[in-house]
Amino acid sequence: MRIPAHSVCTAIRADIVSGVLPRGSRLAEEQLARRYGVSRVPVREALRTLESEGFVVSRRHVGACVAEPTEQDAADLLEMRTLLEPLGAARAAQRRTEAHLKVLRGLVRLGREGARRGQGEDLRPLGDWFHETLAQASASPGLTSLLTQLRHKTAWMYAVEEPARPAEAWAERGAIVDAVARSDAERARMLTAQHVERWRGTHRLRRTGRVRGSQPPVNTAGARN
């Protein structure tokens, strides 16, 4: 069975983001193929995709390596999210479906309940899911793809602290959903811009050292593509 390149790409990206594949490390196709239990063909395709996303660079006489972003690269990343997240919310207000609204409202409900219970760290995946769904509701594949890449890069470059007032963060997300539900694009844009800007201070640059851990082989039994 041929393993799709996008599955290999997801696995390599996850190891880069987590630090298992450290910044600046060489990405030899043969070694990666053994690591993920695949042939070199999907590895080669995955590396091309990751290079286009900015996670991988090609160096003369060395080959593919994990990129080494600068502090300026990291600052630019947050700046781009500050500009693009509100655009996605505005488009979502104009193009969302009832299915998108159902998911967004459900996530806000779960987030508010978790904040009341003081779950803290457990709410982060919900927040990521919320913003991913909001981007998908924009019905703009190019923008959704770009925002997804920016979120992956944010997780790679920054450690995000839990907001001191998680209930406030989820109240803001609830207001965004209300604006989207009313098809009020300008209010959705404004509220999202305020939300993103307010929580930028929770981002701290990661240290570049290796983070221990491992990614299971892509083609293990029961693995999802």
Automatic annotation (TrEMBL):
InterPro entries, A to Z: GntR_C, TF_FadR/GntR_C, Tscrpt_reg_HTH_GntR, WH-like_DNA-bd_sf, WH_DNA-bd_sf
Source superkingdom: Bacteria
Organism: Streptomyces tamarix
Region of interest (Disordered), ranges: 206-225
Keywords assigned by UniProt, alphabetized: DNA-binding, Transcription, Transcription regulation
Residue ranges occupied by any HTH gntR-type domain in the UniProt entry: 2-69
Keyword DNA-binding: yes
Name of the featured protein: GntR family transcriptional regulator
Cross-referenced PANTHER family: GLUCONATE OPERON TRANSCRIPTIONAL REPRESSOR, TRANSCRIPTIONAL REGULATOR, GNTR FAMILY
